[in-house]
UniProtKB/TrEMBL annotation:
Key words, A-Z: Amino-acid biosynthesis, Branched-chain amino acid biosynthesis, Hydrolase
Keyword presence, Amino-acid biosynthesis: yes
InterPro entries recorded: Class-IV_PLP-Dep_Aminotrnsfr (IPR050571), P-loop_NTPase (IPR027417)
Protein name: HAD family hydrolase
Length: 248
């Protein structure tokens, strides 16, 4: 039986590092933001490496959904995999994209303080709106899947993950009903064949990593007024999800 894990994150939430952790499991293959091209095609937005993204993936959401609900992709280094970890950006899952095909998926949510997200995001793409960081859509999806399953999906706060990676990953694995694997704590430096084609624009830091970074400290970054207004608007959505975060 294939265990499909849908991890719902916004950008700059340590989502690629989390994907690295799961990909380092012997029983797991990963998919990196499979709806990115469909999102760009539907919205017409200009993102770094837009043309390359559009060429690299299906642009019809139905085709993506059919693939993700279909047979487990076979990776040469995980021939006996039973876990399929799918890294999703919540803002990519537009309201027009259906969700009924996700029956039986195990959902989890990765969050980060809005000011930290924005401070990191604008280093890669100067133009940003509230919808770009995904928190509003994240709450909508959280409510949808909680209602579908009758239980709140597990939520991981990026600050908690950095403070104690092993404890948080053990809690996450328990919540997802999979065994914890110590291999999740460290991975080889470099790019992966599974990384999206957009990796050169976004993944520079994680490509140099071999594990989760040291905590950033409790102080939140100071933001210019336009970004602070977005952070303030996002804060209630972050706090709503934070109430369900896994503890160490």
């Amino acid at each position: 039986m294939t265990i499909r894990i849908a991890m719902w994150s916004g950008p700059r939430n340590l989502s690629t590092a989390m994907m690295r952790a799961f990909e380092n499991r012997a029983d797991c293959v990963v998919s990196d933001e499979p709806f990115y091209a469909a999102y760009l095609a539907a919205t017409g937005l200009d993102h770094p490496m837009r043309d390359e993204v559009l060429r690299s993936q299906p642009t019809a959401w139905q085709d993506v959904a059919t693939s993700l609900a279909g047979p487990l992709p076979q990776a040469t280094d995980a021939a006996d995999a039973t876990v399929w970890y799918q890294k999703h950006m919540t803002h990519h899952m537009l309201p027009a994209f259906g969700l009924d095909w996700m029956g039986g998926f195990r959902h989890a949510f990765l969050i980060r303080a809005p000011s930290r997200v924005l401070n990191s995001y604008v280093a890669k793409r100067e133009e940003v709106t509230l919808s770009d960081i995904g928190l509003v859509r994240q709450v909508e999806l959280f409510d949808r899947f909680a209602n579908d399953t009758g239980a709140a999906p597990p939520v991981v706060d990026s600050d908690d993950l950095l403070a104690d990676p092993e404890a948080i990953l053990r809690s996450l694995c328990a919540a997802l009903s999979i065994p914890f694997d110590p291999a999740m704590l460290h991975w080889p430096r470099g790019r992966r064949a599974s990384d999206g084609v957009w990796a050169p624009a976004w993944y520079g830091t994680v490509e140099q990593s071999t594990g989760f970074a040291a905590p950033a400290g409790s102080a939140l970054p100071a933001l210019p007024d336009p970004l602070q207004r977005i952070a303030d608007a996002a804060q209630p959505y972050y706090e709503r999800l934070s109430a369900y975060r896994l503890s160490v």
